[in-house]
Design goal:
Oligomer: single chain
Largest sheet: 5 strands, parallel
Order of helices and strands: HHHHHHHHEEEEEEEEEEEEEE
Strand content: 5-15%
Helix content: 40-55%
Number of helices: 8
Length: about 280
């Protein structure tokens, strides 16, 4: 390469604020998931002490990772790492409830263990719960790296800023998009292809609520699009497939899209048609 270009690249590398390898972040989160859920673990712990040593190692790795961006943190890397680890019991409880909700809502699910081990919806929620905790601790970049990691693995795009209640169920999940300022209540179920987005992508709206509020007990079927920060879907409502909503609906609503589909019987061909390519 041209030496001037190489020097320019070197300067950019030296000026980079975030020396934070994405692979280390993702590996760390996978380690936490293995700690929390035996179906995901690569190893079995023979004693409590072995598990404690493993957990201490994860906290040390988190501290080392956060230390690399300590100037951008609102408090010391040690304090952030400690606070994150202290949230794990609560995150674990939420994720068990999520797994139970998915297993209860899907007739194909054989067990909670199967959901934890194989379901992309659970994977996306699990990574989001940890990314959201780091987002609330004002850790830069780290939460977005995690959300994009889950997005690449599952096809489910949840911004780490989205606030999601308990017993959250994602069924199938491919193509789901949940925006940064979404508020989602408890016992909500969402199918594939759902978008909870903003009406506008104007940069001036960065610090205001742009995405909808989904109250508890709502079911949103495949392909529905719900937009706008002032849009509220009232509790226990059902939003049918392919519905487009930019306004609020009251609790216990039933909102459906009525497609105009014309099905006609074609005449039988007089003789077989064979194509050769």
């Amino acid at each position: 390469m041209n030496s001037q270009f190489v020097n320019t690249l070197f300067k950019h590398h030296q000026e980079a604020k975030h020396h934070l390898p994405a692979s280390a972040i993702c590996h760390l989160v996978e380690g936490v998931l293995q700690l929390l859920f035996p179906p995901l673990a690569d190893e079995r712990f023979e004693t409590v002490r072995e598990l404690e040593v493993y957990a201490d190692g994860l906290q040390h790795d988190l501290l080392r990772t956060l230390t690399s961006i300590e100037p951008q943190l609102p408090q010391s890397a040690r304090e952030v790492a400690q606070q994150m680890m202290e949230q794990l019991p609560y995150i674990h409880q939420l994720l068990l409830q999520d797994a139970e909700a998915i297993a209860a809502g899907d007739p194909a699910a054989q067990s909670i263990g199967e959901v934890i081990r194989t379901y992309p919806g659970f994977k996306a929620i699990a990574v989001h719960r940890m990314a959201h905790a780091l987002y609330q601790l004002q850790v830069p970049l780290f939460p977005r790296v995690l959300s994009e990691y889950a997005h690449a693995r599952t096809g489910i795009d949840i911004h780490p800023g989205a606030r999601i209640g308990s017993n959250f169920c994602i069924d199938h999940g491919t193509g789901i998009v949940i925006g940064e300022t979404c508020l989602i209540g408890d016992h909500v179920k969402i199918y594939q292809g759902v978008t909870l987005g903003a009406l506008s992508v104007d940069k001036a709206m960065a610090n205001i609520k742009r995405h909808p509020t989904i109250e508890s007990g709502v079911v949103i079927y495949a392909g529905a699009t719900i937009l706008g920060g002032n849009t509220v879907i009232g509790k226990n409502s059902i939003i049918g497939g392919n519905v487009w909503l930019t306004e609020s609906v009251p609790p216990y609503s039933r909102v459906y899209h009525r497609p105009q589909v014309d099905v006609r019987r074609a005449a039988d061909p007089a003789e077989a048609i064979n194509f050769s390519i």
